[in-house]
Amino acid sequence: MQVFSSIKQLKPLLQPYKTTTTTLGFVPTMGALHQGHLSLVKKALDENDSVVVSIFVNPTQFNNKNDLKNYPRTLETDLKTLLRIATEKEIFVYTPNANEIYPNGLESEKYSFDGLENEMEGKYRSGHFDGVATVVNRFFTLIEPDKAYFGEKDFQQLQIIRKMTAIKNLPVAIVSCPISREPSGLAMSSRNKRLSQKEQEEAAFIYSVLSHVKKEFGTKSVLELSTWVAEQFQQHKVLELEYFQIADEATLKPLLDTTTNKTNARAFIAVYAGDVRLIDNIALN
Ligand code: AMP
Predict the structure, then answer these.
(1) What is the structure's pLDDT at 257?
(2) Ligand 1 centroid distance, CA of 107 (Å)
(3) 187 contact partners, CB below 8 Å, separation of at least 6
Protein backbone atom coordinates (compact mmCIF):
# COMPACT_ATOMS: atom_id res chain seq x y z
CA MET A 1 0.00 0.00 0.00
CA GLN A 2 1.29 3.44 -0.91
CA VAL A 3 -0.07 6.83 0.11
CA PHE A 4 0.05 9.95 -2.09
CA SER A 5 -1.28 13.45 -1.68
CA SER A 6 -0.13 14.57 -5.14
CA ILE A 7 -1.57 13.25 -8.41
CA LYS A 8 1.73 14.08 -10.16
CA GLN A 9 3.48 11.47 -8.06
CA LEU A 10 0.65 8.95 -8.14
CA LYS A 11 -0.24 9.07 -11.84
CA PRO A 12 2.90 7.43 -13.32
CA LEU A 13 2.49 4.48 -10.95
CA LEU A 14 -1.04 3.83 -12.25
CA GLN A 15 0.01 3.41 -15.90
CA PRO A 16 0.92 -0.32 -15.65
CA TYR A 17 -2.68 -1.02 -14.58
CA LYS A 18 -4.23 0.74 -17.56
CA THR A 19 -3.19 -1.58 -20.35
CA THR A 20 -5.64 -3.55 -22.49
CA THR A 21 -5.19 -6.59 -20.25
CA THR A 22 -5.25 -4.91 -16.82
CA THR A 23 -7.81 -2.83 -14.97
CA LEU A 24 -7.68 -0.15 -12.33
CA GLY A 25 -10.48 0.11 -9.73
CA PHE A 26 -11.36 3.26 -7.83
CA VAL A 27 -13.18 3.76 -4.52
CA PRO A 28 -13.87 7.38 -3.59
CA THR A 29 -14.42 8.00 0.13
CA MET A 30 -14.47 10.81 2.65
CA GLY A 31 -12.56 8.71 5.18
CA ALA A 32 -13.54 7.65 8.71
CA LEU A 33 -13.52 4.22 7.12
CA HIS A 34 -15.79 1.43 8.33
CA GLN A 35 -16.72 -2.04 7.10
CA GLY A 36 -19.05 -0.53 4.49
CA HIS A 37 -16.15 1.27 2.82
CA LEU A 38 -13.99 -1.83 3.16
CA SER A 39 -16.59 -3.97 1.39
CA LEU A 40 -16.22 -1.65 -1.62
CA VAL A 41 -12.42 -1.81 -1.48
CA LYS A 42 -12.48 -5.62 -1.20
CA LYS A 43 -14.81 -5.93 -4.19
CA ALA A 44 -12.60 -3.55 -6.17
CA LEU A 45 -9.51 -5.61 -5.25
CA ASP A 46 -11.31 -8.80 -6.33
CA GLU A 47 -12.28 -7.35 -9.70
CA ASN A 48 -9.18 -5.34 -10.67
CA ASP A 49 -5.40 -5.56 -10.80
CA SER A 50 -4.97 -2.57 -8.54
CA VAL A 51 -7.18 -0.10 -6.65
CA VAL A 52 -7.04 3.59 -5.83
CA VAL A 53 -8.87 4.62 -2.65
CA SER A 54 -9.32 8.35 -2.28
CA ILE A 55 -9.82 9.97 1.10
CA PHE A 56 -11.06 13.52 0.73
CA VAL A 57 -13.75 15.36 2.69
CA ASN A 58 -15.30 17.28 -0.19
CA PRO A 59 -16.30 20.77 1.03
CA THR A 60 -18.61 21.57 -1.90
CA GLN A 61 -21.05 18.76 -1.15
CA PHE A 62 -21.80 20.03 2.37
CA ASN A 63 -24.74 22.39 2.53
CA ASN A 64 -24.31 22.71 6.29
CA LYS A 65 -21.12 24.30 7.67
CA ASN A 66 -21.35 22.50 10.99
CA ASP A 67 -21.74 19.13 9.30
CA LEU A 68 -18.52 19.82 7.35
CA LYS A 69 -16.72 21.05 10.47
CA ASN A 70 -17.83 18.07 12.57
CA TYR A 71 -17.31 15.41 9.89
CA PRO A 72 -14.94 12.83 11.42
CA ARG A 73 -11.37 12.96 10.10
CA THR A 74 -9.30 9.94 11.12
CA LEU A 75 -6.60 9.57 8.47
CA GLU A 76 -4.06 7.66 10.55
CA THR A 77 -6.59 5.06 11.67
CA ASP A 78 -7.96 4.86 8.11
CA LEU A 79 -4.54 3.98 6.74
CA LYS A 80 -4.10 1.27 9.37
CA THR A 81 -7.54 -0.09 8.54
CA LEU A 82 -6.72 -0.29 4.84
CA LEU A 83 -3.40 -1.98 5.58
CA ARG A 84 -5.27 -4.77 7.34
CA ILE A 85 -7.17 -5.71 4.18
CA ALA A 86 -4.23 -5.29 1.82
CA THR A 87 -3.61 -8.27 -0.44
CA GLU A 88 -0.72 -8.87 -2.81
CA LYS A 89 -2.50 -6.36 -5.09
CA GLU A 90 -1.39 -2.78 -4.71
CA ILE A 91 -3.68 -0.28 -2.99
CA PHE A 92 -2.87 3.36 -3.78
CA VAL A 93 -4.35 5.73 -1.24
CA TYR A 94 -4.91 9.21 -2.61
CA THR A 95 -5.30 11.98 -0.02
CA PRO A 96 -5.32 15.24 -1.99
CA ASN A 97 -5.75 18.67 -0.49
CA ALA A 98 -8.52 20.99 -1.65
CA ASN A 99 -6.19 23.03 -3.92
CA GLU A 100 -5.39 19.99 -6.02
CA ILE A 101 -9.06 19.11 -6.50
CA TYR A 102 -10.28 22.71 -6.85
CA PRO A 103 -7.43 24.66 -8.47
CA ASN A 104 -9.85 27.44 -9.45
CA GLY A 105 -11.49 27.81 -6.04
CA LEU A 106 -14.10 25.90 -4.07
CA GLU A 107 -16.91 26.03 -6.62
CA SER A 108 -19.20 23.25 -7.88
CA GLU A 109 -20.05 22.77 -11.53
CA LYS A 110 -23.78 23.00 -12.21
CA TYR A 111 -25.40 19.78 -13.38
CA SER A 112 -28.74 18.55 -14.53
CA PHE A 113 -29.51 14.85 -14.27
CA ASP A 114 -32.98 14.52 -15.79
CA GLY A 115 -34.56 15.49 -12.48
CA LEU A 116 -32.77 12.85 -10.35
CA GLU A 117 -31.08 15.71 -8.51
CA ASN A 118 -34.39 17.30 -7.47
CA GLU A 119 -35.77 14.42 -5.41
CA MET A 120 -35.18 13.57 -1.72
CA GLU A 121 -31.57 14.48 -0.80
CA GLY A 122 -31.66 17.07 -3.59
CA LYS A 123 -34.61 18.78 -1.92
CA TYR A 124 -33.15 18.79 1.56
CA ARG A 125 -29.48 19.37 0.72
CA SER A 126 -29.36 22.17 -1.79
CA GLY A 127 -26.28 21.99 -4.05
CA HIS A 128 -25.21 18.64 -2.57
CA PHE A 129 -25.27 16.66 -5.82
CA ASP A 130 -23.52 19.40 -7.80
CA GLY A 131 -20.71 19.06 -5.25
CA VAL A 132 -20.70 15.26 -5.45
CA ALA A 133 -20.74 15.19 -9.26
CA THR A 134 -18.01 17.85 -9.44
CA VAL A 135 -15.63 15.95 -7.18
CA VAL A 136 -16.30 12.53 -8.73
CA ASN A 137 -15.86 13.92 -12.24
CA ARG A 138 -12.59 15.53 -11.15
CA PHE A 139 -11.37 12.26 -9.62
CA PHE A 140 -12.32 10.33 -12.76
CA THR A 141 -10.31 12.81 -14.86
CA LEU A 142 -7.27 12.62 -12.57
CA ILE A 143 -7.26 8.86 -11.96
CA GLU A 144 -8.90 7.49 -15.12
CA PRO A 145 -10.13 4.27 -13.51
CA ASP A 146 -11.72 1.42 -15.48
CA LYS A 147 -14.27 0.73 -12.74
CA ALA A 148 -15.53 2.84 -9.83
CA TYR A 149 -17.34 1.46 -6.78
CA PHE A 150 -20.27 3.14 -5.01
CA GLY A 151 -22.47 1.96 -2.14
CA GLU A 152 -26.23 1.56 -2.33
CA LYS A 153 -26.24 3.24 1.08
CA ASP A 154 -26.23 6.47 -0.96
CA PHE A 155 -28.58 5.13 -3.61
CA GLN A 156 -29.54 8.50 -5.08
CA GLN A 157 -25.85 9.40 -5.37
CA LEU A 158 -25.20 6.09 -7.15
CA GLN A 159 -27.93 6.82 -9.72
CA ILE A 160 -26.64 10.35 -10.22
CA ILE A 161 -23.08 9.14 -10.80
CA ARG A 162 -24.41 6.59 -13.30
CA LYS A 163 -26.29 9.36 -15.09
CA MET A 164 -23.26 11.68 -15.05
CA THR A 165 -21.07 8.95 -16.52
CA ALA A 166 -23.63 8.34 -19.26
CA ILE A 167 -24.21 12.03 -20.05
CA LYS A 168 -20.48 12.78 -20.25
CA ASN A 169 -19.79 9.48 -21.98
CA LEU A 170 -16.99 8.68 -19.51
CA PRO A 171 -15.19 5.36 -20.01
CA VAL A 172 -15.74 4.25 -16.39
CA ALA A 173 -17.94 1.30 -15.37
CA ILE A 174 -19.98 2.12 -12.28
CA VAL A 175 -20.28 -0.82 -9.88
CA SER A 176 -22.89 -0.77 -7.10
CA CYS A 177 -22.30 -2.47 -3.75
CA PRO A 178 -24.89 -3.57 -1.16
CA ILE A 179 -25.40 -1.74 2.14
CA SER A 180 -23.26 -2.99 5.05
CA ARG A 181 -25.13 -2.94 8.34
CA GLU A 182 -24.31 -3.26 12.02
CA PRO A 183 -25.70 -6.42 13.68
CA SER A 184 -28.54 -4.18 14.92
CA GLY A 185 -29.48 -3.35 11.32
CA LEU A 186 -28.18 0.23 11.50
CA ALA A 187 -26.56 1.12 8.17
CA MET A 188 -22.85 1.72 8.69
CA SER A 189 -21.89 5.34 8.25
CA SER A 190 -18.98 7.60 9.17
CA ARG A 191 -21.55 9.83 10.87
CA ASN A 192 -22.43 7.01 13.30
CA LYS A 193 -19.16 7.90 15.05
CA ARG A 194 -20.84 11.11 16.16
CA LEU A 195 -23.75 9.28 17.84
CA SER A 196 -23.83 8.59 21.56
CA GLN A 197 -24.14 4.96 22.64
CA LYS A 198 -27.85 5.50 23.30
CA GLU A 199 -28.40 7.23 19.94
CA GLN A 200 -26.64 4.35 18.16
CA GLU A 201 -28.94 1.87 19.84
CA GLU A 202 -32.03 3.94 19.07
CA ALA A 203 -30.95 4.47 15.45
CA ALA A 204 -31.39 0.74 14.78
CA PHE A 205 -35.11 1.63 14.75
CA ILE A 206 -34.63 3.15 11.26
CA TYR A 207 -33.90 -0.25 9.74
CA SER A 208 -36.66 -1.97 11.66
CA VAL A 209 -39.12 0.58 10.22
CA LEU A 210 -37.77 0.02 6.69
CA SER A 211 -37.98 -3.76 7.14
CA HIS A 212 -41.59 -3.47 8.25
CA VAL A 213 -42.39 -1.33 5.19
CA LYS A 214 -40.80 -3.97 2.97
CA LYS A 215 -42.92 -6.66 4.58
CA GLU A 216 -46.14 -4.69 4.15
CA PHE A 217 -45.38 -3.33 0.68
CA GLY A 218 -47.94 -4.62 -1.80
CA THR A 219 -50.60 -5.25 0.84
CA LYS A 220 -50.84 -1.65 2.12
CA SER A 221 -51.00 1.51 0.03
CA VAL A 222 -48.06 3.92 -0.19
CA LEU A 223 -50.14 6.47 1.70
CA GLU A 224 -50.88 4.01 4.50
CA LEU A 225 -47.24 3.02 4.74
CA SER A 226 -46.03 6.64 4.71
CA THR A 227 -48.53 7.61 7.40
CA TRP A 228 -47.49 4.64 9.51
CA VAL A 229 -43.80 5.61 9.23
CA ALA A 230 -44.54 9.24 10.17
CA GLU A 231 -46.46 8.03 13.25
CA GLN A 232 -43.59 5.82 14.35
CA PHE A 233 -41.25 8.79 14.44
CA GLN A 234 -43.78 11.19 15.98
CA GLN A 235 -43.74 8.93 19.01
CA HIS A 236 -39.97 8.55 19.04
CA LYS A 237 -37.99 10.41 21.71
CA VAL A 238 -34.57 10.38 20.04
CA LEU A 239 -35.12 10.23 16.28
CA GLU A 240 -36.73 12.89 14.12
CA LEU A 241 -37.97 12.04 10.63
CA GLU A 242 -36.93 14.39 7.83
CA TYR A 243 -38.46 12.46 4.94
CA PHE A 244 -39.73 9.05 3.99
CA GLN A 245 -40.41 8.29 0.36
CA ILE A 246 -41.22 5.23 -1.70
CA ALA A 247 -39.79 5.84 -5.14
CA ASP A 248 -39.02 4.26 -8.46
CA GLU A 249 -35.38 3.11 -8.41
CA ALA A 250 -34.62 4.41 -11.88
CA THR A 251 -36.35 7.80 -11.92
CA LEU A 252 -36.40 8.33 -8.11
CA LYS A 253 -39.87 9.81 -8.57
CA PRO A 254 -42.35 9.04 -5.78
CA LEU A 255 -44.59 6.03 -6.34
CA LEU A 256 -48.14 6.89 -5.53
CA ASP A 257 -49.50 3.43 -5.03
CA THR A 258 -48.01 0.01 -4.53
CA THR A 259 -49.37 -1.28 -7.81
CA THR A 260 -47.72 1.44 -9.94
CA ASN A 261 -44.42 -0.35 -10.16
CA LYS A 262 -43.88 -3.35 -7.99
CA THR A 263 -40.63 -4.48 -9.46
CA ASN A 264 -38.59 -1.34 -9.20
CA ALA A 265 -39.57 0.21 -5.88
CA ARG A 266 -37.32 1.35 -3.04
CA ALA A 267 -38.05 3.10 0.25
CA PHE A 268 -35.80 6.01 1.23
CA ILE A 269 -35.51 7.70 4.60
CA ALA A 270 -33.62 10.55 6.28
CA VAL A 271 -33.67 10.90 10.05
CA TYR A 272 -31.99 13.14 12.61
CA ALA A 273 -30.52 11.80 15.85
CA GLY A 274 -29.65 15.05 17.63
CA ASP A 275 -27.74 17.05 15.01
CA VAL A 276 -26.54 13.94 13.17
CA ARG A 277 -28.35 13.27 9.92
CA LEU A 278 -28.70 9.61 8.92
CA ILE A 279 -29.97 8.18 5.62
CA ASP A 280 -30.95 4.67 4.67
CA ASN A 281 -32.95 2.82 2.02
CA ILE A 282 -34.30 -0.62 1.22
CA ALA A 283 -35.34 -2.40 -1.97
CA LEU A 284 -39.01 -3.33 -1.69
CA ASN A 285 -39.05 -6.24 -4.11
P1 AMP B 1 -18.50 8.31 2.08
O2 AMP B 1 -17.16 8.17 2.69
O3 AMP B 1 -19.62 8.40 3.05
O4 AMP B 1 -18.54 9.37 1.00
O5 AMP B 1 -18.76 6.93 1.32
C6 AMP B 1 -17.87 6.44 0.34
C7 AMP B 1 -18.54 5.31 -0.38
O8 AMP B 1 -18.84 4.27 0.55
C9 AMP B 1 -19.87 5.71 -1.05
O10 AMP B 1 -19.98 5.06 -2.30
C11 AMP B 1 -20.88 5.17 -0.07
O12 AMP B 1 -22.13 4.87 -0.66
C13 AMP B 1 -20.19 3.92 0.42
N14 AMP B 1 -20.74 3.50 1.71
C15 AMP B 1 -20.85 4.25 2.84
N16 AMP B 1 -21.46 3.55 3.82
C17 AMP B 1 -21.75 2.34 3.29
C18 AMP B 1 -22.40 1.18 3.79
N19 AMP B 1 -22.88 1.11 5.03
N20 AMP B 1 -22.53 0.12 2.97
C21 AMP B 1 -22.05 0.16 1.69
N22 AMP B 1 -21.43 1.23 1.16
C23 AMP B 1 -21.30 2.31 1.94
Answers:
(1) 78
(2) 23
(3) 36, 153, 179, 180, 181, 206, 207, 278, 279, 280
